Amino acid sequence: MPENVTLYALSTCGWCKKTKRFLESHQIEYVCHEVDTLDGEEKDRVREAVAKANPRKSYPTLVVAGGGVVVGYDEDKFCKVLGL
User: Fold this and answer.
1) Closest listed residue to residue 57, CA positions, set 72, 78, 40, 75
2) Largest pairwise CA distance in the chain
3) Within 13 Å and on the Cβ side, how many CA atoms surround 14?
4) In sequence order, what are the beta bridge partners of 61?
5) Model's pTM, two decimal places?
6) Which residues make Cβ contacts (< 8 Å) with residue 50, sequence separation at least 6?
7) CATH class of the structural domain 5-82
8) For 7-36, what is each residue's pLDDT tens digit?
9) Are residues 15 and 73 in contact, defined by beta-carbon separation less than 8 angstroms?
């Protein structure tokens, strides 16, 4: 299992919520940044991180250290980058 998994999401996004449920159902520990709930410098910092991983800056964006990036909801790609 990967150790550093980060999900960039929006609190109102149905696909983001579905991605969280997928991760939780597979007992994947992850850090979630709901970008629309952040303020100031923290929001700017997180948006920059999203842009580095996903130039389209769309959500959800799942980043796995050493494993890649998945943009949008795609269970097959999640399994591949998470080693499931």
Assistant:
1) 72
2) 36
3) 0
4) 8, 71
5) 0.92
6) 8, 35, 57, 59, 61
7) alpha beta
8) 999 999 999 999 999 999 999 999 999 999
9) yes
Q: For tokens 């980060």, name the residue.
A: 6
User: How many C-beta neighbours within 10 Å does residue 77 have?
Assistant: 15
Q: Which amino acid is at 21?
A: R
Percent of the chain as helix, strand, coil, to the nearest 5: 45, 20, 35
Picking from 28, 15, 18, 13, the residue whose alpha carbon sits closest to that of residue 82 is: 28
How far apart are alpha carbons 37 and 22 in whole angstroms?
Answer: 22
Name residue, tokens 């159902």. Answer: 25
Q: Is the pLDDT reported for residue 64 higher than 90?
A: yes
Q: Which of 18, 36, 20 is nearest to 28 (CA)?
A: 20
Helix residue ranges, H only, 1-84: 14-25, 40-53, 75-82
